Amino acid sequence: MLPRRPKLHMSPVLLPSWPQCGGVFRLGRAGSASELRAARGTWQWRGIAVFLRLEMRQHTPCTARLLQRGTEMRQGWQQSQGWRSPAPEVVGRLLGDVQGAGQQPITFLRQVTAISTYPRLLDHPALPLDAKQRAREFLANCAGNSIGAYTESEGIGAVRRSVAQYLEQRDGGVPADPRNLYLMSGTSNAMSVIFNLLIDRSRSRRTGILVPVPCGVFSWRTIGKLGGVVLPYRLDAEQGWDVTAQELRRVVEEGRQHCQPMALCVTNPGIPTGHVMSRRCMEQVIRFAVDEGLLLLAKEGHPSDIYSGSCQLQTFKKVLFEMGPKYSGVLELVSFNSVSTGHIGESGARGCFMEVLNMSPAVQMYIGLMLSAFHSTSVTAQIAIDVATRPPLPGHPSYPLFQAEKQESLRILAEQARLTEGMLNTIPGVSCAVINSGTFAFPRIELPGGAREAAEAMNLRMDTFYSHQLRMDTGCLLAPGGDFGLQDGPWHFRMNFLLPIDKLKLTLEKIMEFHRKFMAEFS
What we know:
alpha/beta; seven-stranded mixed beta sheet; five-stranded antiparallel beta sheet; 20 helices; 12 strands; 11% strand
């Protein structure tokens, strides 16, 4: 018999973090030292303290900038002590924002957005007919024929139907119900909704959620902030960053000693590793989630945004149904898909669609109630979702340009990925796996024992010490692997390769030269 998983919590308090945020804002306006001292011991001050502990626990992109600023503030002292002067220019990026790095937007998407925003452009002769027709269809589904109006909390019905048709085509005919789809302003918001449902602070045993290591830090912070327990499971770098059932079982058994494991998070393709999960690994994850009665939360990418022809991105829903009704009729699955990456690359639009499977109607009703607190998702985000899932078709006026722009964006990303992994693998003691997707490399690096003493003197991990020294010597910005859950060796760092090819090559050459000097100094 399958183990029984506790029902999803449905609290009448929709967003318990809001009061704490309000306290932070009120204190920020107060400003005086006496008022801050008076706030100590109150719920507002405790909220700030908890927030700071959560935010500073790991070196997120936000705290990385703080650390960088702290390094710059120490320049005077370092130079007086004979330290090397920091590089004048920061080279590299922390966020995987492809358009922020120079990728050109999809023209058809911009045209539909422009016409929908300013309908008088429907009469402009320079705009293609299919873009005008798409904008007309979109406006017809908006109240008052205006994108300035609220839409349904779950998203515009016509767009959800288009997304359902896209999912059926993507997954080889597996049915998709628009009623199970939700259009959201960003994956982080979508995941927060599910975490709010899962985590019940009133239970005697806290809610545990399995999270991969390495991974982005958003889930860690949100789970902890809501009162849940992060149960990190380690991906196997030697097996292409796949996860084993043995590792998942170990984490669940240890977690049950102090919490109730209820959900398993997976990311495919991996962030920041850039790997694509194998079919065997996905089947193992599905079997394990069913056997243990866990909700499966899958953050997934677009199948076409893969740089290597040797692998294929499959979705958990497709694999689940191909495994048969023993699994497809039982497993509760929530999948998240974003338009922020790949050839669409609309990070600023904050568009995401979430699909739920085998979830209780009562729970889905409560998801709708939670979304109603936000009134509706950004309409420009819904336009981006609509174009991403329903692009121009062969024979349409915009099809040739759309295909050319898509292929060019993917070609550049693939070229950047191949150059990065190739040059990193020529550095002694550094090994980088094949980058199949995304905008990051996550190489393994062997650091000399002599660096440990220097790192401990600065109260830093060895990977953080290496990244700081690299920043000071060359200006190259790398994120240490500990920021993504790898708190001990073997050491890794994350490199964002969103740079023009010539500048990327120069940056990699600087890293190679720095590494040679670093090894000579601390060996």
